[in-house]
Design goal:
By secondary structure, this protein is an alpha+beta fold. It folds into two domains: 2-58 and 286-418, no CATH class; 91-274, no CATH class. It contains 14 helices and twelve strands. It has helices at residues 2-21, 23-59, 84-88, 95-104, 141-144, 157-162, 171-177, 222-226, 250-264, 280-323, 325-333, 338-375, 383-409, 413-418, and strands at residues 65-69, 108-118, 122-124, 127-129, 133-137, 149-152, 166-169, 188-191, 194-202, 217-221, 238-244, 276-278. Strands 1, 2, 5, 6, 7, 8, 9, 10, 11 and 12 form a ten-stranded mixed β-sheet that branches. A two-stranded antiparallel sheet has the order 3-4. A hairpin with a 2-residue loop joins strand 8 and strand 9. The model has no long low-confidence stretch (mean pLDDT 82).
Length: 420
Amino acid sequence: MRILLRIFKESVAIAIRELRVNKLRTILTLLGISIGIFCVISIFSSVDSLENNLRTSINKFGSNVIYVTKFPWAPEEGETEYPWWKYWNRPYAKFDEMRTLQEKLTGAEAVAVSIWMGGPVLKNGDRNMTNATLNGVSQDYNRIMDLNLQSGRYFTGAEVNSGQPKAIIGYEVGMQLFPNNIDPVGREIDIFGQKVMVIGLFAKEGKTLIQNTNDDLVMVPYQYLVSKVKVDGFQVEPAILVKAKDGVPLDELKDEIRGVMRADRRVRPSQEDNFALNQISVISNQLSQLFGVLDVVALIIGGFAILVGGFGIANIMFVSVRERTNLIGIKKALGAKNYFILLEFLIEAIILSIIGGLIGLVLVFFTVQGLSAAIDFKLTLDLKNIIWGISTSAIIGFIAGIIPAIVAARMRPVDAIRFK
């Protein structure tokens, strides 16, 4: 153990000496491995940040929620393509069907109905907003979705059932319509030319790639929204949300929903469903496949740069072996074993490669920080990618240094001492 520790210390010292004595040669050599690690880890960090952003956005829809809609989110079982024409004439989900599911489902924690649509112009005096999103919801929607309110409250049952003009608005909506940090709760805004009372304000969430943030949202009672817009199942399509009870598998809940919906719509046993049961896992699985492919592409792109860096490490180790041939002969003449010489050069190659990898990781860190500030999108360099970068550097150093180390270890002492 002491011998190994001594070899390690000497190898580290020699590697550092190489950096000091042959600065230009060593830096140019390490540049290849640094660029390779920079390319791979930069792409991995970008892909991971993109995936985390998308998954965070998607998970807001609930991992234990079934969506009863007209159109499926992906081709249904047994279909190789998306036959939209078959779904076109299906009936859309209705408020009365939501009531039926509430009464008959035993595995549901909560059932609600929701409509998402592009909002009209919102006004408050001479201030207006045109890019808001409207969401009409029924009473139990807050039991299904995690609604983070900064101030105010959710709708009461009476407000939802009677369709009262009440609203919960997002952070950006509040900032645009009520500047100077004015609390919008208790004040009124114009929607569809009608005064609507603001009863709640969502906490700030920030931007997401799929734009499902609550920041630009205006949530109103379902009955109020359907009294103002035409629900046609195409441009305005309701969805029934069913949250499973703890311990109830989603497949079991889907079977129960299917039975209730088929009975309520009088679908014959020989007929297929005229509704779709969607869940977030469909999108999550597609994301996993997509990002799996992106990871492979990133590895291929960066692999070529790392390969070049590996050749550079191998080259500098062959040069180092040649320059220290006489010293190798003297060490072996004094009794140094072959494995001692082999480990000395092998550890030196690994140390040099790790130094190059660390330089690449430092470059990634500053790039990530700079881009995050410049494009207002959170990029992260996580521990997994740091460990991956260092491990890859060590492996490349091992592969690049093994042959020069073997050449050095096999030298005959007499020939090595006489080498000029």
